[in-house]
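Today's session is about reading a structure prediction critically. Students often jump straight to the picture, but the first step is always the sequence itself: look for stretches that repeat, for charged clusters, for runs of hydrophobic residues. Only then move on to the predicted structure, which in these notes is written as discrete structure tokens rather than atom positions. Here is the chain we will use throughout the hour.
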Amino acid sequence: MIGFLIALLSGALMSIQGVFNTEVTKASSIWAANVFVQFTALLVCLGAWLLTDRSSLTSVWQVSPKYMLLGGAIGAFITYTVIKSMDSLGPARAVMLIVVAQLLVAYVIELFGWFGVEKQPWEWRKAIGMAVAVVGIIIFKWK
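Below is the predicted structure for this chain, in token form.
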């Protein structure tokens, strides 16, 4: 149950953050806003680490394969693409497309067992769920 609630909170925070970041971009530029977003995230993470964890920061270099360390770089492009999509489509449409893309890519990752994720079998139920989500976007966008 806690995982469910955390996932809901994550989605809500992503939507709010996207709106905030889009507004910051209007006052500056997309990359200046992105620098600010990533810098403030760094400060929050360092503060949380100091208050709660204090494990060795250098231990992240022990991860294998090393390409797993690209999450932060990918995060910069996530911020960029969320800002651009929200600016172009509005928050609701952008988030719907973002969530469907996340779901589709996550399912493909599971199906093929990419990046060390345990491979999962094809399930029609999941494919139908994906189709329902796409139909939902079409209905939402329909004028």
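Discussion point for the tutorial: The helical segments are 2-27, 30-53, 71-89, 91-112, 124-141.
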